[in-house]
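Please, structure for the following, as tokens.
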Amino acid sequence: MIEAFKTFVNSISSPVTIFTSAAIVFFLILSFPRITTSKWVAGSALLLILLFFGIGLTDENFRRIVTAPDNVPIVAMIFVFGYFTWFALRKATENDRRMEQGLPTVEATEANEKVLVFPYLIFIEFVVALFYAIGLVIWSILLKAPLEEPANPTISPNPSKAPWYFLGLQEMLVYYDPWIAGVLLPTFIILGLCAIPYIDRDTKSSGYYSFKQRRFAITAFLFGFWILWILLIVVGTFLRGPNWNFFGPFEAWDVHKVVPLLNVNLSEFIYVKWLGWGLPKFWIIRELPGFAVIILYYTAAPLLLSKTFFKVIHQKLDPVRYSILATLLLTMVALPIKMYLRWAFNLKYIVALPEFFFNI
């Protein structure tokens, strides 16, 4: 039974199924927050995850990867982030329920409960710091530091992986050129987070948790955080093996595994496969379809969204703030779009300019 389960999981494990399943679960959770944040549902989900890990630890390949000193903190990170996300959503749904009943929010009922910083807060922080110190000592005793032999320029480890906090960027390198995945997208992430207070000036629901009043903002942020960052880190840590090939969670990492790559650019799709012509020699004509797609994506899409899904947001924001918001969101959504284009059509680049080392 257990071996059949492992075989089944390995057979359905692929970037498409994992990303799609995670996205479906994510939107189901946020579509029914009162149900999914209940203790019974959350407890059942936790038991299923622990059961999966329990079965997985009986497998040598799974156990070797998950219990590696480098990867133990990432496993812990999944549970810690999952708990605090659930806790925040639960507080938000509780406030939504109270406001529907005409009751004040939980934060409003606690507003008059003032506590002095000293000695109460300082004492709590001191006790927490002691527990953290004890935990770090126990951790250092049980797990050896993941130090390797001195670097040798003639021998590269396979797989050669970045630190865990850069594995999301390394995973994006599969779908984007290095200057986009390593420079442009991280810059957009930082600037986008800095721009949030200036784009969203709505003081509604300030000072208390609420999901109903901030559904779009919470959904967009959590999608970027969980699906486009944490999930990519998990995939890069546990499912990317030698030669950056994709492996199932119970599959042995075979160095000799060969995956055929038949990736083609958009210009080759249009001129060679669809029209049956040869590629034009002049780069502007050759990549004109790609440039047209990029321009339409960043010009027509914001206009279309302002008349449909973002109609309310467009009415609240001035043109400059709406343009910035739309650009940031479209850039974020471009990552899963590019991922699905690679998986479904083997599309490598929308615009490929090797003459200028410029690819999108």
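The beta strands are 352-353, 358-359. The two ends are 46 Å apart (CA to CA).
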